[in-house]
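Encode chain A's predicted structure.
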Amino acid sequence: MGAERLILIEGMIGAGKTTTARLVETWLTSRGEDARAFQELAEDHPIRTRAVDQLREHYRQLAEPPGPRRRWRRG
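Encoded structure for chain A:
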């Protein structure tokens, strides 16, 4: 049995990370390798941790719009 490897693909939103991961998975599979592409938030992601989930939730809450807008009265 060969050594297991993990390939991480990083980039900005819309840079083609998912497309690249699928292409690499297809290429490796065509060569007889056991390959799998994971989506970033997949439950079975090999490096997903509770701490990462907590950070994501924290930043998701920060990104939510505030409650009802208050009208400020001028002097």
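The mean pLDDT is 83.
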